[in-house]
Design goal:
The complex is a heterodimer of chains A (146) and B (112). By secondary structure, chain A is of the alpha+beta class. Helices cover 20% and strands 39% of the residues of chain A. In chain A, strands 1, 2, 3, 4, 5, 6, 7 and 8 form an eight-stranded antiparallel β-sheet that branches. The longest helix of chain A has 12 residues. Chain B has one domain: Arc Repressor Mutant, subunit A, CATH 1.10.10.10. In chain B, strand 2 and strand 3 form a beta hairpin. Classes of the chains: A alpha+beta (146), B alpha+beta (112).
Chain lengths: 146, 112
């Protein structure tokens, strides 16, 4: 049983082969075209896609705020797996981990993205599940959506 | 300051990593103001055992204890958990929008 810290997982089935999706998530000129949480521009991308290589993206939100997540590539398996750490300087949060997994699917690609908190030393001592249920229940309790 | 806040969040996650402590929070959602001895009883713990768990939750700012006479009532203090949920919400938004754009990009590119 693995430790489950809060994480975000999204799955997309894409009508394009894994090679094309891989290019879009690893080539800076393509990354510039989709990266960011709203319609604001992606300003710069550094993607030294090899284990130990550097990752850095600067994007500007529509409200004018700029963010610069940075990290280090941890695992690179061509057209299959891309794992990098995620550090948001100045933000009130510890380092986290982003994983892209690509699987061929009916002539296209199934992409699974996971963004998870890295367990700290204390959390590693526990091997419990149950996050999702608790947070779901809490969001109902608080009357907010997560 | 950022560092200070990060360690606050670590405390929250650590506090939540234990099943008994998560159970306590769920009980308190259903029944705010339970006493320490009622909580100990419902988890088959002795008072000192429950008090240890409550200390961790209290350090993380997840509960408050109010003493009335000889009874200590425990209530939920959800603000730190809201920070944890804000973390989730922020990345759900980032990746949902980014992946929508990614899909549009590669699918348009793949069209004959």
């Amino acid at each position: 049983m693995t430790l489950h810290l809060p994480s975000v997982t999204l799955v997309r089935r894409i009508k394009a082969p894994p090679a094309k999706v891989w290019a879009a998530i690893t080539q800076p000129d393509l990354m510039l075209q989709w990266w960011g949480p709203d319609a604001g521009p992606t300003l710069s991308v550094i993607a030294d896609v090899r284990p130990g290589g550097r990752f850095s993206v600067v994007f500007r939100l529509l409200n004018g705020d700029e963010h610069n997540p940075t990290g280090i590539y941890r695992e690179v398996v061509l057209e299959k797996t891309l794992v990098f750490t995620w550090d948001l300087p100045g933000a009130p949060e510890p380092e986290s981990l982003v994983t892209f997994r690509l699987e061929p699917f009916e002539g296209g690609t199934e992409l699974t993205l996971t963004h998870e908190r890295l367990p700290d030393e204390a959390a590693r001592t526990s091997h419990e599940q149950g996050w999702t249920g608790l947070l779901d229940k809490l969001s109902v309790f608080l009357g907010v959506s997560p | 300051m950022a560092k200070h806040k990060a360690s606050d969040m670590d405390r929250t996650f650590w506090a939540l990593a234990d099943p008994t402590r998560r159970g306590v929070l769920q009980r308190l959602m259903d029944q705010p103001g339970l006493s320490v001895s009622e909580l100990a009883g419902s988890f088959s713990l002795k008072l000192p055992g429950m008090t240890k768990h409550l200390d961790v939750l209290s350090d993380a700012g997840l509960i408050t204890r109010t003493k009335t006479g000889r009874t200590v009532a425990v209530t939920l203090s959800p603000a730190p958990m809201q920070a944890a949920m804000a973390w989730l919400g922020q990345y759900e938004r980032l990746w949902t929008v980014s992946l929508d754009r990614l899909v549009a990009l590669v699918e348009a590119d793949s069209a004959p």
